[in-house]
Amino acid sequence: MRTTKITEGKICPKCGNATEQNNFGRNRSGTQRCKCKACGRIYTLEPKRRAYSEEVRELAIKEFYAGISGRGVGKIHGMSGNNVYNWLKKKPKRRG
Ligand SMILES: [Zn+2]
To answer: Where do the domains of the chain lie?
Structure first.
């Protein structure tokens, strides 16, 4: 049975279609491009906005290194502990 493919967040800016929005490579800055099957429009996806500000992120990392568990830090800021761990992973290591 064929199901209609609805990809979340992909809506054609021209015709407003949310179905059959296929990936169409990436542009120079690495943003995902999509092609609308209905009207043939090629458009770039808006980059996802960060859910948390840089300040919250910095604070969360500091709190973690101050001895609070990832879960605890998450509770303080109303986010999941996994989120905190992800930030820690992404943090570049100090050089030298
Ligand atoms: Zn379209």
So the answer is: 1-46, 54-90
Q: Which CATH architecture has domain 1-46?
A: Single Sheet (2.20)
Asked if residue 64 lies in contact with residue 73, where contact means CB atoms within 8 angstroms, the answer is: yes
pLDDT in tens, 51-64: 678 888 999 999 99
Ligand 1 (ion): residues with CB under 5 Å are 12, 14-15, 17, 36, 38-39, 41
pLDDT digits (tens, 9 = 90+) for 5-22: 665 668 898 999 989 999
Average the pLDDT over 45-74 and give the result.
85
| Amino acid (1-letter code) at residue 78 | G
CA nearest to 46, candidates 38, 34, 57: 34
User: From the CA of 27, how far away is ligand 1's center (Å)?
Assistant: 19
50 C-alpha to ligand 1 centroid (Å): 27
Report CA(19)–ligand 1 centroid distance (Å). 9
